[in-house]
Amino acid sequence: MGFWSYLSSRHQQLLTDAYQHASAVFQCMVIATVIGVVIGVATYRSGWAAGLAITSTSTILTIPSLAMIGLLIPLVGLGVAPTVLTLTLYGLLPIVRNSIVGLRGVDPSLVDAAKGIGMSRAARLLRVELPLAWPPILTGIRVSTQMLMGIAAIAAYASGPGLGNEIFRGIASLGSANALNQVLAGTLGIVVLALLFDAAYVLIGRLTIPRGIRV
């Protein structure tokens, strides 16, 4: 069977897998973004704390994703749980690092001016520092998303959702008529999703970042 014929005959299952893949990455990115920005806010003022945060999250990336999932299966079982935990942990580093860099890069004179007009520390953070740090934070989110698109495919090893199931089915049936089609369909699907997500981030950047501070 040709590749296009395979896509036509399996399009419903492929669309379902693609939706589950995108949904898993999106939800984990939301969780990773919230946790990563909170860690950045809590540590950027202290050199040792920021260094500890970056070192800790970068250490996670040294663990092979397949090994991470394998370690989590005895603790949380198969399916969605190890997928969510793995993707969230792997998504932290770029967000934490860029949050710290972005917050440290805010002009101190602007913070002092906000303090001078009576803004509280929380108000300065929410209305001055975080908006000015948003461009690098958004860049960190984009980088994390691209990473997680590929890592999410490994979640199929733990019966997780997504296009990785198509790839693993193809690998498991190497030599059969549709093995290559399955691997190719899953791989191309992930590439397309990654491009769509990145285009969405570009649009979000244009809508949320003032022209004067765009890079």
Short description:
The chain has helices at 3-43, 47-60, 65-76, 80-90, 92-104, 108-116, 121-154, 164-172, 179-208.
Question: Helix fraction?
Answer: over 70%
Question: How many individual β-strands?
Answer: 0
Q: Based on Cα principal axes, name the global outline.
A: elongated
Pick out the low-confidence regions.
Answer: none
Give the count of helical stretches: 9
Average pLDDT works out at 90
Please state roughly what percent of the residues sit in beta strands, choosing from under 5%, 5-15%, 15-25%, 25-35%, 35-45% or over 45%.
Answer: under 5%
Backbone CA Rg: 20 Å
Alpha-carbon distance between the termini? 47 Å
Structural class: mainly alpha
Please write the string of helix (H) and strand (E) elements: HHHHHHHHH
Query: In this structure, how is the largest beta sheet organized?
Result: none
Jot down its keywords.
about 220 residues; mainly alpha
Protein architecture, described:
The structure is a single chain. The protein is mainly alpha-helical. The protein contains nine helices and no strands. It has helices at 3-43, 47-60, 65-76, 80-90, 92-104, 108-116, 121-154, 164-172, 179-208. Helix 3 crosses helix 4 (80-90) and helix 6 (108-116) crosses helix 7 (121-154). The longest helix has 41 residues, at 3-43. The chain is elongated and about 70 Å long. The model has no long low-confidence stretch (mean pLDDT 90).
